[in-house]
Amino acid sequence: MKLKDFITVSLLGLVAFIISMVGGMATQIFGAWGVFIHVSVGSFLCAPIYFVMCHKIHKRGAAFIYNLVRGIVYAVMGFLPMTAIMAVAGIAGELSIGKADNYNNNQRITVSYVISEVIYALHGFFFILFLGVNGLAKTFPNLFTVEKAQAVHDTFFDPKNLMTILAIEIIAALLGALFGKYVHQKFFNKKSHSESVL
Asked: Using N-to-C axis directions, what is the helix angle for 106-121 and 40-57, rounded to 10°?
């Protein structure tokens, strides 16, 4: 990957981070129900960025860097553990695409995007799993009291809640993938405008 490509992917990752944050903040209007769609709004809106990036760069490492940049921004904001989660999301996304030629394969891009976004959506689950309730409160003292950390635990470790979050996220990411394919096909694909977006 050339420096120009690295900069392009990094900037797109940064834009995706901003969109995700705005989308996440918008879910606060749903109160306690917002946790079920916190990441999903961003997953839908950011898919076109991911699809255009993959088709434009189509080089190994793009999916990883895209996600890692979002993790680094989290670290700068004081959420260092998110860097590890986004790195894992990037590795999973990269492995899902496979060889460089698959960066032009919409099905592989879709699988990569959905898997990486699901990992991102489950960050609360992973925090509780690895840090525990007290560890979460100590790691993010400005965000969580022990009571709030316990509420996160209760949300993510309730099987019904976890399945609901997963289902909503998968649907949002898949719809986002369709949206991403459409945007790429309509505005960025110079080769053919007759190819189906489905």
From this structure: 140
